[in-house]
Amino acid sequence: MSSSSSQVSVTRRRLTTTGAFALAVATAATLATAPASAAPRPVQDYKGFIVSPARTQISFTYSPTGFVAGTRNQHEARPGLSIVKLYIADYVFKHGTPADKARASEMIRTSSDAIASQLYRKYPQSISATARTYGLRNTHSNAHWGYARTSSYDSMKFVETKKRRNYNDPVLVAMRQATPRAADGYAQDYGTAVLPGAVGTKWGWSDDRRSVHASVSYGRDFTVSANTWGNKHALTNDVRGAFRGTMGAPGRPAPGRQLTPVQQAATNWANDMERAALNAPGSSVNERAIRDARRGLDPWIMRLP
């Protein structure tokens, strides 16, 4: 096959896949405009669990109502990475010296390992004490902070509790002031931070920058946390795939309503179609159209029995 013929074939396949989305969207009923929350809406299966690959755990709460949703594995204790720096910092902000409090803020903003080690040597009880204070049952300290463990549920619960008590808590302020790159040069731009409405985030990653990644973010009306066995792109993709539209958007179920088996099957099909379209050669030029088309299917799916 000539290169020109191959290019035409690839283009046709891409247009066919994208066209399928457009056709489905065109057949969907037009819904009346209604005010919507800025909080992202989790995609749930018929049992109420957030839909995501087993490699990833996700926990979410909608602040106005207290609605909570998570993946089946959200309580699994996983490597805490730099997420546990939030727990160290919280203890230091309560019991530390002014100089240490300043270091704690910098530790969150830049994810400095050096500062974390310095503070943890001085306050070795910080992680376990914070876990007790906030009821973080999946969080376990270690002789070295880097080996502590936590879960997406615990980090979500911690940040949401802080936010409800004081939106300008120093932990939350530091998360809002995170630097584009961490102290070690790693970009702080992935995972839950990509969700619309996120204003503050803490990230975590394994030393090899491939094995494990995590993040916890909050907005005015939601908090969300995620951890994946994989690189930052895997985490970001799984987070994006776990949310569709916003809480309270027209055509969506009320918070806490579960998808029926038929709706779940249709959602799985639509997600598979989106992944196929995004993985097609040259799809990058049409990524926005593909994602918009996928979102347009949601009202149609929610009308299924």
Automatic annotation (TrEMBL):
InterPro entries: Beta-lactam/transpept-like (IPR012338), TAT_signal (IPR006311). Residues 1-38 form the signal peptide. Gene3D superfamilies: DD-peptidase/beta-lactamase superfamily (3.40.710.10). Keywords: Signal. This is Secreted protein. It comes from Candidatus Corynebacterium intestinavium.
